Structure formats: C-alpha cells, structure tokens
From TrEMBL:
CDD domains per record: PseudoU_synth_RsuA_like, S4
Organism expressing this protein natively: Planococcus antarcticus DSM 14505
Family: Belongs to the pseudouridine synthase RsuA family.
Any one annotated GO CC term: cytosol
NCBIfam families: pseudouridine synthase (TIGR00093)
Alphabetized UniProt keyword annotations: Isomerase, RNA-binding
Name of the protein this chain belongs to: Pseudouridine synthase
RNA-binding S4 domain span: 2-65
Length: 243
C-alpha cells in the first residue's frame, strides 16, 4: 500500500505537491469514490482516476546500479549535483533509488518504480543484509570489532549486531580494510559505527545487497534485475529465507 499522492507522482501525473493539491481539489477518484483528503493509501488493484481519466498502471522495472562516489541518491538535487537517475536518461519510467547511499559512498543501489517492493527492501523489520567494505584510518583491534558485532550505542540508539571481518591491515600506512554486514539503514550508519570505536572511514563501498553483487559492473554502469532475482528478493524480505 502506498499514499495516493505518491502513486500519482510516480505515474507522472504531477509532482508530489501538485498531486496533493489535485486530491484536495476533489479531482481524484479511487474505485469510484472522490478523495478529498491526504493520507489515503491505495494498492496496485485499486482503480484510480484523475479528472475523469483512469490512471494507467505503469510496468514495474528493476535495476541494479553501481553508484559512483560523488553522486546523490535522489531523483533531483537543488544544488545541481549529479544524481543517480542521471544514469538512466534512456528510461522513460519515473524510477527512484531503493534506500540511499551517501554522496561519498559508492556501490550497489537498486532502482525501481515499484514502491511496495522498495518498502519491503528498506524497512528494518525485513532485515535484508547489506555488506560494505571500508578503508579505515588506523587498524582496529579484535576487541574493537567485537563491539560492532555485539551492537554499539550511537546517538540514535543501539545498533543491531553486525558481522565484521578484518580483511587487511598495513602498519606502515596505518590503514585497514574491513568488511561489515548490517541489516539496518540509518543515516551514515556504517561511518558512525566505525567512528564510535575510534577508526574513521576514509573510503566506503556497498559491495552486496542480499545475494546481489556488483560482479561485471564498473562504477556508473547498471543492469536490469531478472524476474527470478526480483522474486528471490521478495521471498527473502517476506520470509527471511532464500529459495
């Protein structure tokens, strides 16, 4: 279920704000009933009309993007910086990122126009694993990494237990490469977790989302997810198990 104004915006009827105004003006009907209030949620089976014209159901699409550093995980930016949809100029559908990666973080990002699917993959209760590789300033001790494995207190609360592995450490440069897997998606969470144990992140990349990887892609490249991959992601989010 998605909010009506969001469905209208994603279908290309108008911007989110203008879609809200269409609703308030009584120009939108759902299953024959005129809607004049915001907050109404609709499903993919509901019949939606705008000013007497039925909303066509848009074909759902799903892409995997290798987001480069220095790109905003959004469909637009008021500072005119590059955004992830700039890599899909040949796609007519209004796609958007599932969750986000920080401006300075590269890696795997799913793009779609399926709001229900996006919610399933980003809601914490579904516990989808996301694996990152971080280059740190300093080489953490085992006890430091165990703090992350148990969960660590941040300003917005305790984190869930993480899976952490030291991949390499260079005493000459004082840098380390660490792999970390989490299923939460708080703002700048991985960076804040490492900062909390005293090892700032210098470079960060999301290498895996559930079973999806960046294999075969370079930064800025993308590929369409197969129907089977989409099905596996739905099952994983719904049951926590792969099929």
């Amino acid at each position: 279920m998605e909010r009506l104004q969001k469905v209208l915006a994603h279908a290309g009827v108008a911007s989110r704000r203008k879609s809200e105004q269409l609703i308030l003006d009584g120009k939108v009907r759902v299953n024959g009933k005129t809607i004049k209030e915001l907050g109404v949620k609709v499903s993919s089976t509901d019949k939606i009309e705008v000013e007497g014209v039925q909303l066509e159901k848009e074909q759902k699409v799903y892409y995997l993007l290798y987001k480069p550093r220095g790109v905003i995980s959004a469909v637009s930016d008021d500072k005119n910086r590059k955004v992830v949809t700039d890599f899909f100029t040949d796609i007519e559908k209004r796609i958007y990122p599932v969750g986000r990666l920080d401006y300075d973080t590269s890696g795997l990002l799913i793009m779609t126009n399926d709001g229900e699917f996006a919610n399933m993959l980003t809601h914490p209760k579904f516990e989808i694993d996301k694996t990152y590789v971080a280059r740190l300033k300093g080489i953490p001790e085992k006890d430091d990494l165990k703090k992350l494995e148990r969960g660590i207190k941040l300003e917005d609360g305790m984190t869930a237990p993480a899976k952490v592995k030291l991949l390499s450490g260079d005493k000459k440069t004082g840098k380390a490469i660490v792999q970390i897997t989490i299923h939460e998606g708080r703002n700048r969470q991985v960076r804040r977790m490492f900062e909390a144990i005293g090892y700032p992140v210098q470079k960060l990349s999301r290498e895996q989302f559930a079973f999806l990887t960046l294999h075969g892609l370079n930064a800025g490249e993308s590929r369409e997810l197969s129907a089977h991959e989409v099905k596996l992601l739905r099952v994983l989010a719904d049951t926590g198990k792969r099929v």
